[in-house]
Design goal:
Elements: E1 6-10, E2 16-17, E3 33-37, E4 65-66, H1 71-77, E5 81-82, E6 86-91, H2 97-110, E7 115-119, H3 124-134, E8 141-145, H4 149-159, E9 163-167, H5 184-201, E10 204-210, E11 229-234, E12 241-249, E13 257-263, E14 266-269, H6 273-278, E15 288-295, E16 298-310, E17 318-321, H7 325-339, E18 346-352, H8 364-376, E19 384-386, E20 389-390, E21 396-397, H9 402-411, E22 416-420, E23 434-438, H10 441-448
Parallel strand pairs: 6-10, 6-11, 7-8, 7-9, 9-10, 17-18, 19-22, 22-23
Antiparallel strand pairs: 1-2, 1-3, 4-5, 11-12, 12-13, 13-14, 15-16, 16-18, 20-21
The structure holds thymidine-5'-diphosphate and magnesium ion.
Magnesium ion binds near residues 98 and 167.
Amino acid sequence: MAKIKTNYICSECGYETGRWLGKCPSCGSYNTINEESTQRLKPSSAGYFAAAETLDQIKTLSDERVKTNIEELDRVLGGGLVQGSLTLIGGDPGIGKSTLILQICQSLGDKGKKILYVSGEESSQQIKMRAQRLGITTNKLLLLCETNLDIALNAAVDIKPDVLVIDSVQTMFTEEVSSAPGSVTQVRECCSKLMRLGKGNNISVFIIGHVTKDGSLAGPRVLEHMVDTVLYFEGERMASYRILRAVKNRFGSTNEIGVFEMLENGLKQIKNPSEYMLSGRPIGAAGSVATCSIEGTRPILTEVQALVNYTTFNMPRRMATGMDFNRVILLIAVLEKIAGFQLGSYDSYVNLAGGIKIGEPALDLAVVSAIVSSYKKIPIDAETLIFGEVGLTGEVRAVSMAEKRVLEALKLGFKTMIIPKDNMRQIKAGKDVKLLGIKSLSELLNIIL
Ligand code: TYD
Ligand code: MG
């Protein structure tokens, strides 16, 4: 018998090696390298497109975008779904990918699009129950519970849907590859078959991919280079809001996010995330500061909270949730140096309310203000918004899109804003707002203390 050809492939990044390794040399993940058969059992047919064309021979696809009428999604897609495109939706298991896609099916069904939903995870009864809960009524949706991709593709060729959904790619297999479903080789082969089907028949394909931590399944990252659009659905399972983020988009900007909330009857769009994030903010409490960060091109107001507490232990505890821990340590150090606070004998906990994660330096000034406010037990006026980057010498540096942040805060009724002085010139906001431009941390302390 001929020896079966195998290779060792990283399920995180797709790195291939001839032998097993504990740590992937390419992406640095541990225990993600698995043995896989790379043998092809049947020769696959090659050469789908043969005739080359000049640019003017090619039809333009100008108005082929379909609005899903879920505005948060349309924005992330860059203005709607492009017919014939391949979209990958990745996310942790249980985050709401199947829920989102069913709701997309409803919207597209309302637009008269025929949809084939192939599920390898749930039975038709389970999907029906979920659909009832979500109020899905469209009769343009056809369900198929199948894990053999070749059978599903034959069905798609027969049914000729406008939209094909594969939930999830890790449960699908093609007989042409002998390795197990969910392995890198299988997932890649399935994806490339879907790509050929979609581009060849002008079907928009949605592929759902689970992000797995343990590396036993191939993650959506190994498919990113093949598809047109990569969206990640993120959020804490405990917090109810979810963010849909474009990581790659051949038809639009990757800067956009969509915000949703998971309710009992499905995902609801959050059209005003700032209001949502600031709801329930304590008024007049020391250690709470409102700030504005930019997610993509959208300003989102959030609340930074700090708790600075005297400790009798030798090592003070430091904790940061929702932001970079090392950045918080650095800001505490700057504060000790500039203001002379003895924070070494205080525990410091800093938290972004609502469970959101932000990695923007524009948060610095608000973090510092929250720490000072909690340390000195002096509340910061609830109608004051603070943003700006803080440097190591205590200087306050300009941030991008300052005007956008100010306008968003104005909309939600903030009256005073403490911002970097270098940003003052760009802001033409009206007379109803008091802008305080500062250049250094000591100016900040003068204002808030
Ligand atoms: P699901 O879409 O199945 O996640 P995924 O496909 O990403 O694995 O969503 C699973 C979670 O969402 C589940 O734990 C329950 C919750 N959920 C709601 O809160 N409301 C709903 O209407 C639905 C359908 C699910
Ligand atoms: Mg699912």
